């Protein structure tokens, strides 16, 4: 199965189809409806025992227009993108900018110096194989809003949460509120440019024009497919990815790759002579990007069977090579490693997370595993217009599928993989 | 002087100032007026003997709005940029796309199959140290228009002339005419995306919305500074760069770097105890990008002294390391090489060109030299929004300035550098 995965172009065909035929698929939009239909058709045409969808109620936030320019002293455009749940500016709004190197520095600032201004937080994200630079900086997308409101700012700008130096601003969810606040990210070169202007010590005035909309009553779907277990069909090994994407790119790395990896892995298992002992459930989650809406809905809708979810994991970190397998189950670990070592995957440890959409399950006690990918360049593209198919290496995708098919099959087959207190 | 150049941050300060305080500076616009004022102030504050401007009459083409989207069968936006002198679409215009791998294939197509459609030429540019991949592909920007008009197409799209795979469309001049035609470039990932759709064999409909304007009677300026020669002030060594840039980026590599390199080199020479034998004239050309308007005006306005231009060269190929010195003058070559070898610059040959703005002078018999740069990644950024200051390596800039100061000084000092028939 591992070698079949390494020779198959199936994963590539899946992500090529999703990113080309659907493209960007912001949750709750018309494109998202097409994505759900695409996923249903894909899974129904494969060898699954059951394919179904489950509704997820969501707010539908949309981006309509976003523009920024320096009014004075050095008139020129700046490249921004509104963060998810940002408010609008009601036409072009002009104000002076006040810059801070970090949230900490901003929080210490006198409200007097901030009131009526556009706040700009210019904190850089560090590059790291496992994305360790992301959490401390991405947090800003949320924390900047209440602080900016409290000090009477007119809008908030952050340096993009990303590791590239291209003029792609990185979007991402911010704070949802009844009183939405204009919040946007500058691309790294634009953040540098604005900083150079501020460093000259003269007042810098920006004009922002952000138009977005939000509708409370939206809907998307989790798309689910199952291979029924041969002996213990009630026991579930859950693997998945998220189907939705931000609107700027075509959602290739985030998370078309995960959809392709987990779907192709499940398909390989479906083609074996017999079903594994337990059921394998493939979940393509709706609206991960704006707050794990699909994952939370799944955990709620399946509350009564979570105790029978023996293990779960999501592929949602791009298409880089898997380099480590993390599991708290010693039998699964040792058995899997006999096949994974040839894929240059090293033995890991107890995983801290099984992926964003697995969080709500993990909180309810579902054990998780992790196939750690090299995400060194993931945040070069993450949540930008540049997250497109050409950023995926087909061979690396195949290595991922090989690893996922091995681990998923073992998790569904090994007698030792069952819910125990120590996991 | 060479070592002083390698230790100085002057070149960086110049390009930092130009790209930050002026930013994008499309010829004939308000930003261009600020660029000319910036250049005058820069040169007047240095040790030149004379600083002046010369008017250049130009048409002023401007970009106002550009948007493309797939209407069917896979609705999604595509990233485009209008080419210089493109026409407008008069609101959103929808038509089917017909694709061709090359201009040759397009030219052979029946007009019947093209009429009423949007033509798409998807030819890739090859990466090359000296940019050899550029001319055969950039030519398309011009040749596609008459061919598309002749066959009754509604608009022309080309794959960007560039070597990157990021979602930055590359602009560049197209054909100017009384009957402008909507002409735009897709970024490489968008060209790939559109090609994948066409390859599915179903009709692909695009909506284009391009709004541009052109005003015939515009003006820009060549900004000129001179160090008067000690013995033969009437003999001129001309070095320069172009001051204008496209509107998408901040014109850092193209051609803020050249402005910094040649200005800093001339400044170093101006700080020597005595002026060299001949005059050194630094010319910052206006509107190179839309058709060498400044260079043509200079050649015309200085027709009577071109015979006294002993040698000329322009820096307009980014900020990569100089790796070869090209000159037809054996004395200049051998003398310069004693200083250039330590900069890892190898001895070259007779140059075919001294840079785009030197073309009109070369046609009038002015000899040229060339400090060949490594342009391997120049066309990753060329004419895109991503041509920003962060793409310049300060140390490489210093090496350029060191090389230019050495060669320029020698050209102005060596008795053997004079107009001879064999150059
Ligand atoms: Zn994701
Ligand atoms: Zn140029």
Could you name the key traits of this structure?
alpha/beta, three-stranded mixed sheet, 14 strands, eleven-stranded mixed sheet, binds zinc ion, 2 domains, 423 residues, homodimer, Aminopeptidase, elongated
- The total count of strands of chain A amounts to 14
Shape of chain A: elongated
Low-confidence stretches of chain A: none
- Please give the radius of gyration of chain A in angstroms: 22 Å
Assembly category? homodimer
The number of domains of chain A? 2
CATH fold-level label of the largest domain in chain A: Aminopeptidase
- Percent in strands of chain A: 25-35%
Bound chemical compounds: zinc ion
Greatest interface (CB-CB under 8 A), with counts per chain: A-B, 34 and 34 residues
**Helix coverage percent of residues of chain A?**
25-40%
CATH class of the largest domain in chain A: Alpha Beta
Mean pLDDT across residues of chain A: 96
Encode the helix/strand succession of chain A as letters.
Answer: HHHEEEEHHEHHEEHEEHEHEEHEHEHH
Instruction: Tell me the name of the CATH homologous superfamily of the largest domain in chain A.
Output: Zn peptidases
Q: What is the CATH architecture descriptor of the largest domain in chain A?
A: 3-Layer(aba) Sandwich
Number of helices of chain A: 14
Distance between the termini of chain A: 27 Å
Helix and strand content put the structural class of chain A at: alpha/beta
Question: How would a crystallographer describe the biggest sheet of chain A?
Answer: 11 strands, mixed
């Amino acid at each position: 199965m591992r070698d079949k995965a390494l020779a198959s172009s199936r994963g590539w065909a899946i992500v090529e189809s999703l990113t080309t035929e659907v493209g960007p698929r912001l949750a709750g939009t018309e494109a998202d409806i097409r994505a759900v239909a695409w996923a249903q058709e894909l899974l129904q045409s494969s060898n699954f025992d059951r394919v179904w969808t489950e509704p997820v109620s969501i707010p539908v936030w949309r981006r309509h227009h976003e523009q920024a320019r320096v009014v004075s002293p050095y008139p020129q455009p700046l490249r921004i993108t509104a963060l998810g749940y940002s408010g609008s500016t009601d036409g072009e709004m002009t104000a002076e900018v006040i810059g801070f190197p970090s949230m900490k520095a901003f929080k210490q600032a006198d409200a007097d110096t901030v009131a009526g201004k556009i706040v700009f937080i210019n904190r850089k994200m560090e590059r790291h194989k496992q994305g360790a630079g992301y959490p401390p900086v991405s947090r800003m997308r949320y924390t900047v809003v209440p602080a900016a409101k409290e000090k009477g700012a007119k809008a908030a700008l952050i340096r993009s949460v990303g590791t590239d130096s291209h003029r792609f601003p990185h979007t991402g969810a911010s704070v949802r509120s009844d009183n939405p606040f204009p919040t946007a990210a500058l691309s790294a070169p634009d953040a540098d440019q604005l900083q150079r202007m501020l460093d000259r010590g003269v007042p810098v005035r920006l004009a922002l024009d952000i138009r977005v909309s939000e509708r409370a009553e939206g809907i998307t779907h989790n798309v689910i497919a199952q291979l029924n277990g041969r002996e213990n069909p009630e026991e579930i090994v859950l693997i998945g990815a998220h189907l939705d994407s931000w609107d700027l790119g075509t959602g290739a790395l985030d998370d078309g790759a995960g959809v392709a990896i987990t779907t192709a892995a499940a398909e390989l298992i479906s083609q074996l002579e017999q079903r594994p002992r337990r059921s394998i459930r493939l979940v393509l989650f709706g609206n991960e990007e704006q707050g794990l809406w699909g994952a939370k809905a799944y955990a709620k809708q399946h509350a009564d069977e979570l105790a029978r979810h023996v293990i779960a994991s999501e592929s949602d970190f791009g298409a880089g090579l898997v380099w480590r397998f993390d599991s708290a189950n010693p039998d699964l670990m040792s058995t899997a490693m006999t096949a994974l070592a040839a894929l240059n995957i090293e033995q890991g440890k107890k995983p801290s997370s099984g992926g964003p959409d697995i969080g709500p399950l993990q909180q309810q006690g579902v054990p998780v595993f992790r196939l750690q990918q090299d995400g060194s360049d993931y945040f070069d593209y993450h949540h930008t217009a540049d997250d497109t198919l050409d950023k995926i290496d087909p061979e690396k995708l195949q290595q991922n599928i090989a690893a996922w098919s091995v681990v998923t099959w073992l998790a569904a087959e090994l007698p030792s993989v069952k819910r125990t207190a120590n996991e």
